[in-house]
């Protein structure tokens, strides 16, 4: 029996083809599900209404600010932040239930192993072989307000790690992957410019891209994920290169 309540927060836009599997995976363990939708033109909101009435349709201020808005609406003891292209596997679902059934929970946040799934392959190496901080004590936690790659800053205390996988179906297809990579690179350029980071020229942008590929494919053993591991390493390398090229172009425009 659960001793601690759980809010699930989710931000959406045009996720009708993926959001139901996400919501289905958390419906049994959530005490409340909070959805912030930034103007979907498909059936996303209608699908979400099958699982919760706590839905707000709003503007799009960027990832960090939108997730903070969702967090501000949460009322439970603990918060699980999940994306529409993610879902808990059965082991992870049970791990969260077991945690919330404890009388006293030592840590204030937990990392969930990411099961990035692309083109029919769940990756085990490379950049995907990591655990993301998604479960945290509500009181005292907040999000950074970055345009992209926002992070949660949990309440002071230790961070644990749960068993199971947070499955992440990151791309619908290769075209969607290209669009998403371009969007994230440009948002990253703008974030770096806002924070005063310098590009240090196009040659360094190229070196950064090459290093990203080497780090993911060789040091983090992405090659063990086969052909999909190669595609992923190349994609991350391109994103990092494009991000610093975008920053360089912003600098040129300002000078």
UniProtKB/TrEMBL annotation:
- Which residue positions does the secretion signal occupy? none
Q: Where is the Glycosyltransferase 2-like domain?
A: 7-103
Keyword Chaperone (UniProt): no
Question: Where does the record place a coiled coil?
Answer: none
- UniProt KW keywords: Membrane, Transmembrane, Transmembrane helix
* TM stretches of this protein: 201-218, 230-250
Instruction: Quote the InterPro entries the UniProt record gives.
Output: Glyco_trans_2-like, Nucleotide-diphossugar_trans
User: Family assignment?
Assistant: Belongs to the glycosyltransferase 2 family. WaaE/KdtX subfamily.
Tell me the protein's name.
Answer: Glycosyltransferase family 2 protein
């Amino acid at each position: 029996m659960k001793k601690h309540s759980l809010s699930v927060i989710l931000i959406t836009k045009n996720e009708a083809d993926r959001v139901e599997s996400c919501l289905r995976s958390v419906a049994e363990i959530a005490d409340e599900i909070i959805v912030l939708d930034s103007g979907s033109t498909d059936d996303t909101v209608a699908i979400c209404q099958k699982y919760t009435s706590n839905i707000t349709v709003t503007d799009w201020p960027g990832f960090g600010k939108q997730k903070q808005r969702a967090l501000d609406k949460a009322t439970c003891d603990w918060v699980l932040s999940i994306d529409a292209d993610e879902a808990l596997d059965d082991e992870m679902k049970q791990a969260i239930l077991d945690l919330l059934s404890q009388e006293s929970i030592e840590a204030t946040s937990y990392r969930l192993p990411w099961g990035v799934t692309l083109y029919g392959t769940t990756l085990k190496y490379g950049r995907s072989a990591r655990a993301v901080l998604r479960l945290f004590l509500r009181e005292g936690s907040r999000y950074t307000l970055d345009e992209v790659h926002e992070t949660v800053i949990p309440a002071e205390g230790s961070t644990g790690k749960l068993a199971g996988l947070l499955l992440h179906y990151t791309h619908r297809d290769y075209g969607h992957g290209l669009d998403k990579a371009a969007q994230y690179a440009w948002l990253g350029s703008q974030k770096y410019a806002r924070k005063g980071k310098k590009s240090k020229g196009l040659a360094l942008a190229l070196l950064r891209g090459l290093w990203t590929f080497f780090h993911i494919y060789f040091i983090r053993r992405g090659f063990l994920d086969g052909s999909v591991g190669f595609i992923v390493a190349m994609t991350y390398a391109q994103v990092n290169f494009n991000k610093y090229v975008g920053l360089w172009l912003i600098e040129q425009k300002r000078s």
